[in-house]
């Protein structure tokens, strides 16, 4: 899990990349950056591959070798037809748009770019992973930052090169709030059941061992009257992998389907991706990691999403309506009390204990003045209207300290309690 950031950095203006010698150099990744310095290298772009990949000749290379550069920490939609001529590009919805913008910015920089990285490395395809800056308005400006600010790419954090993670994440969430480009649900045209409200959320860090069988994405039909036909819709995380719903997948009004990341037997409400790896980032450290769950319709429009940790416009209607009390001694449990005047449905929320998530099951409703107790150990089959069991064996609430909170899956805290040396502060 990732902690909420206390202060959002100013991102209304693009940040400039620190100066470096014409051939190579090291220094802060951008003015005011902390952490490991960046290594800089000037280059000339010889080919724009797509919205997150170019080919370059690096200055000072006597052999004149060509290197593929994969933009660090951003993900564009994929082209399906590649060509030196942009007019011949074809691809998924949003793919050509992103590639054309990259081509425009690089041409405006006279094909001269500045490459940077904290850790000089290649990806599994042998491409150099680098941040890339273009000359725009007489100044070097980060290309990934431009793409994120304009809503043309998804944030795909880097666990090695971390300097830009927070800025990209904030910019992407701001673009989502404004429904720019990818975040415009009708950018590819009016889709199926365009006005039907859909909600998406994902569990990224379940209790116990973090395995693919513990991670999932839920899709809820928020309509009170209309059935949602999910045939050929698909979900993904920030990587390219996707799960496509089979033909005939239908979600009744108010109902939910779950895509489990691991393996199992499909039912009408539960689907299994079949992956043997976890796909959602766990954060909470200085690397500013983040991720998201995304639902696309068959024509490629991004129809619903959940981004975490929430960094922009972070609020929830039930904030302040609950009290949480954690007891880490003897029988480990967390009590949640509703002190508001209305019932509160906790389905779609999590009990988060020191960053691990327990998803409240369907039907978990706390009446006004009511209380529900969640026991860390016990048989989930014994669950009642006022008592739940996580069913996780082993110590999950150390006596030394920790915190427990009712949260959204985007990590907004509705109510929290801490003990020992733990803290509810972000």
Structure description:
The longest helix is centred in the first third of the chain and has 14 residues, at 95-108. The protein is globular and about 70 Å long. The chain has helices at residues 95-108, 143-149, 165-178, and strands spanning 24-27, 38-50, 53-58, 66-71, 74-75, 79-81, 90-91, 112-117, 128-136, 139-142, 154-155, 198-203, 216-221, 228-229, 234-236, 242-244, 250-251, 256-260, 270-272, 291-296, 302-308, 322-327, 333-338, 344-345, 349-353, 356-359, 365-366, 371-375, 387-389, 401-408, 413-420. It is mostly beta strands and 426 residues long. It contains 3 helices and 31 strands. It folds into 3 domains: 24-183, Beta Barrel (OB fold (Dihydrolipoamide Acetyltransferase, E2P)); 198-308, Lamin Tail domain (Immunoglobulin-like), CATH 2.60.40; 322-420, Sandwich (Immunoglobulin-like). Strands 2-3-4-9-8 form a 5-stranded mixed β-barrel.
């Amino acid at each position: 899990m990732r902690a909420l950031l206390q202060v959002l950095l100013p991102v209304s203006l693009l940040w400039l990349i620190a100066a470096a010698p014409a051939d190579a150099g090291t220094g802060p990744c951008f003015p005011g950056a902390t952490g490991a310095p960046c290594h800089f290298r000037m280059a000339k772009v010889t080919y724009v591959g797509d919205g997150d990949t170019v080919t370059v000749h690096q200055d000072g290379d006597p052999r004149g070798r060509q290197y593929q550069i994969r933009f660090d920490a951003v993900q564009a939609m994929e082209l399906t037809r590649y060509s030196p001529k942009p007019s011949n590009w074809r691809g998924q919805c949003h793919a050509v748009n992103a590639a054309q913008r990259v081509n425009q910015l690089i041409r405006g920089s006279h094909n001269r770019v500045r490459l940077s990285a904290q850790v000089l490395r290649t990806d599994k395809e042998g491409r150099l992973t680098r941040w890339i800056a273009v000359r725009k308005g007489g100044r070097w400006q980060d290309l990934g930052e431009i793409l994120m600010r304009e809503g043309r790419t998804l944030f795909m954090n880097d666990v090695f090169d971390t300097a830009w993670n927070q800025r990209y994440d904030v910019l992407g969430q701001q673009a989502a709030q404004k429904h720019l480009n990818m975040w415009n649900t009708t950018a590819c045209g009016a889709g199926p059941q365009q006005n039907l409200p859909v909600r998406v959320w994902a569990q990224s860090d379940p209790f116990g061992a973090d395995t693919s069988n513990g991670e999932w994405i839920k899709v809820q039909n928020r309509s009170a009257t209309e059935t949602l036909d999910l045939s050929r819709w698909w979900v993904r995380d920030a990587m390219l992998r996707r799960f496509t719903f089979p033909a005939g997948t239908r979600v009744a009004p108010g109902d939910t389907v779950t895509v489990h990341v691991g393996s199992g037997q499909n039912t009408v409400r539960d689907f299994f991706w079949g992956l043997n790896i976890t796909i959602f980032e766990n954060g909470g450290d200085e690397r500013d990691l983040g991720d998201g769950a995304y639902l696309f319709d068959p024509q490629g429009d991004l129809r619903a999403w959940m981004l975490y940790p929430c960094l922009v416009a972070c609020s929830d209607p039930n904030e302040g309506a609950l009290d949480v009390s954690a007891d880490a001694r003897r029988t480990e449990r967390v009590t949640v009390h509703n002190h508001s005047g209305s019932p509160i449905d906790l389905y779609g929320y999590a009990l988060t204990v020191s960053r691990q998530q327990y998803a409240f099951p369907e039907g978990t409703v706390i009446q006004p003045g009511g209380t529900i107790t969640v026991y860390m150990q016990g048989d989930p089959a014994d669950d009642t209207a006022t008592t739940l069991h996580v069913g996780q064996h082993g110590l999950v609430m150390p006596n030394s300290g920790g915190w427990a909170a009712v949260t959204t899956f985007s990590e907004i805290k509705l109510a929290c309690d801490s003990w020992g040396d733990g803290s509810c502060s972000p």
